[in-house]
Specification:
By secondary structure, the chain is an alpha/beta fold. It has helices spanning about 15-25, 45-50, 50-70, 85-110, 165-170, 185-200, 220-230, 285-290, 325-340, 370-375, 390-395, 420-435, 440-445, 455-465, and strands at about 5-10, 30-35, 110-120, 125-130, 135-145, 150, 165, 180-185, 200-205, 235, 240-245, 250-255, 265-270, 270-275, 275-280, 310-315, 355, 360-365, 380-385, 400-405, 410-420. α6 links the parallel β8 and β9. The radius of gyration is 24 Å and the shape is globular. The structure holds flavin-adenine dinucleotide. Flavin-adenine dinucleotide binds next to α1, β2, α2, α3 and β3.
Length: about 475
């Protein structure tokens, strides 16, 4: 392979961090090779993360709507049923199309692609055990580690991907479980719980902390939890999982209050373990070249994504920061820009977060709790979708927009949206925060009517004045 010639940049890992870095590097005129062990590009995100989960969230939402909402819009069926194999096939088709699309982008941009498991021989040489069974050495002046993350297991529990599953197994169940227990009330657990709940599973979410998604604005989180409870998702908060045992065809969980106390048991057909993700650097040979990691195993880098070993960089889920695909992509571009002698920048305070349930919850900037803790004087403007004409017209009016702005300057500090498509609506706010806008800037921007986006305009208005439609 031409991978044995010296590259300017070698990227280990073809996820959203790695493949984006590789394409950007090639676009900047650097000779680039990307090494990926999976056999397909796109990493966790495309293969077993963002994309398949969004496919199933959409399909299950359509089924749920057909069952519960179509009739009130005057669309009637004699019966609606789930064809799980067809649903899974549509998901697989989306994944296959997108992963192949990245291979196409590699060809177009002349990124050399080596399929295999990479490990460091030296800070400028990577030995690759190829998926075909051979071995090749890839040399590079700069090497970027983009090996991502893996599921975090829990002590005393074995993930078999059948009864006790990670998100990967939960994306490929062959039957709808009657009872699904989700361990961990983070984004992934709530999304996968929503998918199977809509398809008919009884879903119980067990969470050690006192709240679901702790990073979310408290007020929005409370409404979000109520909404999920209305959808029949049950929550057992402040609860510790003591053990999980497979008994015949079912799984028995032993639980106890987080603060200690009497144990209880819970039965399930399937248990989803979604208690977080850990950086993945297994077999990479970091010790051999002396790359420093923190206690959690994350690679320590400076603001230029450089590790302590000259010429070795790291990006994405394998370094500290939010474990999100778009953050990994931003890291990838900035890292390569530095390597190419340009300036790169990622503002980690302005990385949006989205939970793709229904309604979705999206946010950017600070929560009210964070602003309070900073001792900043602030104002809050809120607007409910119940007062938004588009949301009412389509009978999808659950949710709220909350804008937090600094009192003296009116500068926007944080925006939180719970609604259908909040993940799309949030980007107006993301742009506003990136440009240091005031809430009045949004309020005085003409928004098309009737759109859900008008709710953001009105919430912005409500921070310093009165909204019109409330
Ligand atoms: P990864 O995507 O993990 O890619 C790393 C790649 O490196 C892998 O393909 C791996 O095979 C390869 N690799 C590892 N070691 C080696 C080696 N030694 N040699 C060769 N190759 C190697 N994020 C969002 O932003 N939005 C979402 O909606 C979202 N949904 C998610 C849903 C689920 C169920 C999961 C699990 C995750 C989700 N995420 C989401 C998180 C997102 O997938 C990750 O943040 C993102 O994939 C991180 O990108 P990365 O490039 O750092 O690593």
């Amino acid at each position: 392979a031409s991978g044995s010639d010296e590259n300017d940049v070698v990227v280990i890992g073809g996820g959203p961090g790695g493949y984006v870095a590789a394409i950007k590097a090639a676009q900047l005129g650097l000779k680039t090779t990307c090494i990926e062990k999976r056999g397909t590009l796109g990493g966790t995100c495309l293969n077993v993360g963002c994309i398949p989960s969004k496919a199933l969230l959409h399909s299950s939402h359509m089924y749920h709507e057909a069952q519960h909402s179509f009739a009130s819009h005057g669309v009637k069926f004699s019966s609606v049923e789930v064809d799980l194999p067809a649903m899974m096939a549509q998901k697989d088709k989306a994944v296959a199309g997108l992963t192949r699309g990245i291979e196409g982008l590699f060809k177009k941009n002349k990124v050399n692609y080596v399929k295999g498991y990479g490990k460091f021989l030296s800070p400028s040489e990577v030995s690759v055990d190829t998926v075909e069974g051979g071995n090749t050495i890839v040399k590079g002046k700069n090497i970027i580690i983009a090996t991502g993350s893996d599921v975090k297991s829990l002590p005393g529990l074995t993930i078999d991907e059948k009864r006790i599953v990670s998100s990967t197994g939960a994306l490929a169940l062959t039957e709808i479980p009657k009872k699904l227990v989700v361990i961990g009330a983070g984004y992934i657990g709530l999304e996968m719980g929503s998918v199977w709940g809509r398809l008919g599973s009884e879903v119980t979410v067990v969470e050690f902390a006192s709240d679901i998604v702790p990073t979310m604005d408290g007020e929005v989180r409370k409404q979000f939890q109520r909404s999920l409870e209305k959808q029949k998702m049950k929550f057992m908060l402040k609860t510790k999982v003591v053990s999980v045992d497979t008994v015949g065809d079912s799984v028995k969980l032993t639980l106890e209050p987080a603060a200690g106390g009497e144990q209880t048991t819970l039965e399930a057909d399937v248990v989803l373990v979604s208690a977080g993700r850990v950086p993945f650097t297994s077999g990479l040979g970091l010790d051999k070249i002396g790359v420093e990691t923190d206690k959690a195993g994350r690679i320590l880098v400076n603001e230029r994504f450089a590790s302590n070993v000259p010429g070795v960089y790291a990006i994405g889920d394998v370094i500290p920061g939010p474990m999100l695909a778009h953050k990994a992509e931003e890291d990838g571009v900035a890292c390569v820009e530095f390597i190419a002698g340009k300036e790169g920048h990622v503002d980690y305070d302005l990385v949006p977060g989205v939970c793709y349930t229904h309604p979705e919850v999206a946010s950017v900037g600070k929560t009210e709790e964070q602003v309070k803790a900073l001792g900043v004087d602030y104002r809050v403007g809120k607007f409910p979708f119940l007062a938004n004409s588009r949301a009412k017209a389509i009978d999808d009016a659950e949710g709220i927009v909350k804008v937090i702005a600094e009192k003296g300057t009116d500068k926007i500090l944080g925006v939180h949206i719970m609604s259908s498509n909040a993940g799309e609506l949030i980007h107006e706010a993301v742009l506003a925060l990136n440009y240091g806008a005031s809430s009045e800037d949004i309020a005085r921007t003409c928004h098309a009517h009737p759109t859900m986006s008008e709710a953001l305009k009105e919430a912005a208005m409500a921070t310093y004045d009165k909204p019109i439609h409330m």
